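Before our next group meeting I need something from you. Please put the record directly below this note.
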Amino acid sequence: MRRYFKALVLILVCLAVLIPFASNAPDGLEKVAEALKIEDNEPIWKGLMPDYTLPTIDDPYLSTLLAGIFGTLLVLFVAFILGTALTKLNKK
């Protein structure tokens, strides 16, 4: 368990260091949509962290950092729950 904690801390430190280098340029799909002049409709639901930020936090660096940390923890939690459930299913 201690190794997992160390790995998680390493991931979070890397996020804190690398987030300032994240690009604000549109990704590939957005760039193609802009080139083809496809209109962007208003989404029905904007998601938990639209554009990899937390809308309630005004500081862009802190918002992106916390969204990265929250997203990482969320993915690890879901993977852990799914792995535990599948392991228990295979033991039966």
Observations:
- Residues 2-39+48-91 form one domain.
